[in-house]
TrEMBL record:
PANTHER family: ALPHA KINASE/ELONGATION FACTOR 2 KINASE, HEAT SHOCK 70 KDA PROTEIN 12A. It comes from Collybia nuda. Signal peptide: none annotated. The lineage of its organism: Eukaryota, Fungi, Dikarya, Basidiomycota, Agaricomycotina. This is Actin-like ATPase domain-containing protein. InterPro entries: ATPase_NBD (IPR043129).
Amino acid sequence: MRNRPPYKGTKRRLVLAFDVGTTYSGVSYAVLDPGQVPEIKGVTRFPAQEQSGGDSKIPTVVIYDQNGAVKAIGAEAAELEDNMEGKIEDNGWTKASWFKLKMAPSAPGNSSTIRSIPWLPAGKTIIDVFSDFLRYLYDCTQSYVQDTHLPNGSALWESVKNDIQYVLSHPNGWEGAQQVQMRHAAVVAGLIPDTNKGQARIRFVTEGEASLHFCILSGLPTDAIAKGEGIIIIDAGGGTIDLSAYGRRPDVRSNTYQEIAAAECHLYGSVFVTQQARIHLQTLLKQSRFAEDVDHISQCFDKNTKLRFKNDKEPQYIRFGTSQDKDLNCNIKSGQLRLSGKDVAGFFEPSINCITTAIAQQRKNTSQAISSVFLVGGFAANNWLFSRLRDVLTPLGVNLCRPDSHLNKAVADGAISFYIDHAVTCRVSKNTYGVVQQIPYNLNDPEHVERLPFAFIDASGETCLPNSFSVLLPKDIQVAENKTFFKTFYHDEKNMEAFKDTIRSDIICYRGESENPKWNDEEIDMFTVHGTIIVETSKIKHLIQRMEGIHGQVFYRMKYDIIISFGLTEMSAQFSWSESRQKKKYGLLYFALILDIHLNNLKIPGYNLV
C-alpha cells in the first residue's frame, strides 16, 4: 500500500498468511520491525520446485501411504505421481485433493457439486488433511525464511517463532463453523497452542477482502474510487468464485473502504470446468477402449488444454497418450483427442454465467454506481474466461480489469495487507442472526391466536408461545467493526435448583428471503444453529432474583443481555449483565461443528424478551 506507515509495535513480529486453495496454495509473510515500514514478501521456493519464479505456489495435494502416514505433499506429491505413472493405488497409497471444498457449508444448489468432490482417504478427516497441509506450509516457510534472510535467518526465526501471527484466508461463503475447523487444524498442526492466547494468534479474512487489499496494493481501484463509484472484486479460484463490492467510506480517512453489498460465494471455480470436460469425455468414450482412461485424459485437459484455451473457432487437443493410441470414431489420433472449440467453450459457460449473473445482482444490491470490476485469482489468468467476461460486461458499460502481476498470489499477499493496512472497516451482513425464545401471548395478535394450541404457562404464571425468532442482526445492513448488537433476556425458573450448571443460548442464522422472520418452525430448512454461547451459572448465580408471579406464586429470574459483534471477519458473541453499575461480560461463541453435543436438540426454557 502506498505511504504505508512504519510499524508502531515495540517488538519484532512475524506475520504469515496461508492461502490454502482448492488446487494450488501459497504463503506470504511480513517481518514487522519497530520503526520500519513493513514489506510483503512471498515464499517462492518449495521442495521439488526450487526453480520456480516469484509466483510460486504448490499443488494442494497430500499423498498418504497404506498406514495413513504422509508420503508427500505439494510439488513433491505431484512429482511422485508423475514418477509412479499412475501406480499410487497399486502401492496402497491414497491421494487427498480438492479437500478444502469438503469444508464448504451446506447451501441451496451446493449438494450435487459437493458430491462430485473426491473422497478423503480412508480414516482421514478434513481436520487431519488440513492440519498436515498447514504443517507442511509452516515447515517450508521456516526453511525459506532461515535460508533467505540475511545476515542470520535462523536467529530471526528463533526471535519470533513463539508469537507468530497467522492470517488464514477462506471463501466468502464460509462462516464460523469453517473458521473453527481451520483454527482447530492449526492447533493439531502445532502452529499454535490450544489456549485462548494461542488461538488469538489466528485471524481470518475472506478471499474477497484479501483480494481487495491486493488490488489496492496494485493501485487498481484509484480511478473508480476517485469518481465516487464502487467496485466489484472477483476472486476466481480453483474451487470458488468470490464476489465482493466495495466503496470508499466518506466519513473516515481516505484509504478506508466499506462493503456496499453482501459478499457472494459460488462453487464454480476452474475445477468445475474440468468436471464439465470429464462428463463430456465419459459420454464420448463410453463405447471405446479409452473409457477407463477418462480420469487421466481429464487430468491432461486440466493441466494443458484448459489453461491455453482462448479461441472457440479452432479445434482443441488433449495430448494424453503415445503415437499408438488411435480411435478415429472418437477423434483420437497419435495419442491426441480432438475436441471442437465450441465444446471446450461450453465447459466454461456455467462458470461464466454464474459470474455475470452475480455481477448483475451485486450492482442491483447497492445504490452506488459500479462500472469497474477487477478479476484476480488463479482462474483469472485464463484468457478465455477474461475475454468472455469482457464481451458480456463491455456493452453494459462495465470495465473489466486484472492486475498485471502474479494473479495467483493475490489472496496470500492481500491477506498480509489485511493484517497490516486494515483497509476495510465496514461490512455487510449476509444473513439474519438472532435467538429463538418464548414470548408473552397476545390475544389481539392473529398470529398468536392461530398458535394458541402451542401456548403454555411459564414460571411467572404468564401465558407464552414458543419458537419466536428474535432478530439481533438483520440481513443486508452495513456494520462498522466497532458496532455491537444486543437484546435483554430473562431466564425464569420455579425454584433455584432448576438453574443448571451452565446456561446455553444458540445464535441462530436465518438464510431465507423474509425481511422479518418471526417463527423458527416456519421455513425450518432456512434456520440453522450458527453457534452457541455457554456461560457457567455459578459465575452469575448471585444475580438471580426472587420474584412474585401474576398469581402470587414465587419464581426466580436471571436477567442478562446477549451481545454479538459482526464488524470483523469473525463473529463474536457474549453474555452481559449489570453488576455494581458496571457491565460485565462472560462467555465465548462456540460453533456447533466442534461441540460434542447436538445443538439443534438443546432446549432453553424460560426466555422472555424485554
